[in-house]
Design goal:
The protein is α+β, with helices and mostly antiparallel strands and about 80 residues long. The protein has helices spanning about 5-15, 65-75; strands spanning about 20-25, 30-35, 35-45, 50-55. The chain contains two helices and four strands. It has a four-stranded antiparallel beta sheet with strand order 1-2-3-4, covered by helices on one side.
Length: about 80
């Protein structure tokens, strides 16, 4: 996937699976926040591959971190 496709998939995934709202949008970057926490998703090309970076403000548990891990597993890995 291209970085743009990753961000498009993130928009779809977070819209359908969380109550998080977009707080900031940039070049191939989205920042979400809501009751379950904060997530930042970014993507860029690196040596011919798309690198995806995510950050959350919580540890593992039923919150934004788990939702974000499920998003990462939902995108194709080659």
């Amino acid at each position: 996937l291209s970085p743009e496709e990753v961000i498009q998939k993130a928009e779809e995934y977070y819209r359908e699976n969380t109550g998080l709202e977009v707080q900031a949008r940039g070049d191939n970057r989205l920042e979400y926040s809501g009751a379950i926490g904060v997530a930042v998703v970014s993507a860029h090309r690196d040596h011919g591959h798309t690198a995806v970076h995510v950050e959350t403000d919580r540890g593992v548990g039923f919150d934004v971190t788990d939702v974000t891990l499920r998003f990462l597993y939902s995108i194709p890995h080659v």
